Amino acid sequence: MGGSGVHGSAGPGLSPLNRAEGKVLETVGVFEAPKQHGKYETGQLFLHSVFGYRGIVLFPWQARLYDRDVTSPARDKSENAAGHGSKEVKGKTHTYYQVLIDARDCPHISQRSQTEAVTFLANHDDSRALYAIPGLDYVSHEDILPYNSTDQVPIQHELFERFLIYDQTKVPPFVARDTLCAWQEKNHPWLELSDVHRETTDNIRVTVIPFYMGMREAQNSHVYWWRYCIRLENLDSEVVQLRERHWRIFSLSGTLETVRGRGVVGREPVLSKEQPAFQYSSHVSLQASSGHMWGTFRFERPDGSHFDVRIPPFSLESNKDEKTPPSGLHW
């Protein structure tokens, strides 16, 4: 791949699907060979291999990936009441990155991936107040198709020049400003990605990343908040559509809640060979400091038949330093 051009449409971002529509293409950079080993540096430009947007790496996170598709010799096949194997799943270290999404590409990926998915609890007393930093994302190492550009401001994002500065003597030539380091340090507890859970059922892979957001007091009780990011990927060529979600939410206080509904975040996404993935974020709150969630997504095939896809069980933990409230955009 090294040396081949990255072409963007003057209109609809970088999706190769747009190339057949007679749009005007312009060169935005030159591809580099993806890294098989080691991490990408702050300032690395990339195309997202699944969603096609232009982005830039801010900093890496080391996560533990719990992949239920990886079989182990002593796998315990027993089933629990939730319908999940109670096997022990070992976590493997995996690199993720905090990135900025190019604002020019946001409108063209919004049907497949939310561009305001990284949310914070507001500082004031309204326990339900959430706000988002637009164009902030988490990407896995294998999502990155690296490229380089001679443009000194290759990514359009309101935080680009606040966080990064051009330095032609460096590779990549975009260096973290002090403001980026301060922002990372200040918001570390609310940004940190630690556990990633993955499971595949009938060629539909579900990846879940939970994030602890903080605790708020409401009506003389403590309410603990988490957001969770979910990616659905169709690994087969058959077109399927998400129709229903079914969640079970267990709280350390002893409550078990069931949530059923149509689709997710008001959508019933179609996963096809051309657009195989959909990513969204949602939130959950408990009146206990920990709990766990699991469930299923119901999909429909073209012939009208349905099948259930397991959502891997994941813990909701709050063992973070609570002394500093999340500050989001402040530094």
TrEMBL record:
Q: What is its main location?
A: mitochondrion
Question: Which InterPro entries did the record assign?
Answer: ApaG_domain, ApaG_sf, Hemimethylated_DNA-bd_dom, Hemimethylated_DNA-bd_sf
GO MF terms listed in the record are: DNA binding
Which one GO biological process term can you cite for this protein? DNA repair
Q: Which GO terms describe its cellular component?
A: mitochondrial nucleoid; nucleus
Alphabetically list the UniProt keywords. DNA damage, DNA repair, Mitochondrion, Nucleus, Phosphoprotein, Transit peptide
UniProt-annotated location(s): Mitochondrion matrix; Nucleus
* A Pfam short name: YccV-like
Q: Which SMART domains match?
A: YccV-like
* Domain spans labelled ApaG: 198-323
Q: What quaternary arrangement does the UniProt entry report? A: Interacts with PCNA and POLD2. Interacts with SSBP1. Interacts with PRIMPOL; leading to enhance DNA polymerase activity of PRIMPOL. Interacts with POLH. Interacts with POLD1; leading to stimulate DNA polymerase activity of POLD1.
The cross-references to PANTHER family, in alphabetical order and at most eight, read: F-BOX ONLY PROTEIN 3, POLYMERASE DELTA-INTERACTING PROTEIN 2
Q: What does this protein do?
A: Involved in DNA damage tolerance by regulating translesion synthesis (TLS) of templates carrying DNA damage lesions such as 8oxoG and abasic sites. May act by stimulating activity of DNA polymerases involved in TLS, such as PRIMPOL and polymerase delta (POLD1).
Return the protein name. Answer: Polymerase delta-interacting protein 2
Q: Which organism is it from?
A: Alligator mississippiensis
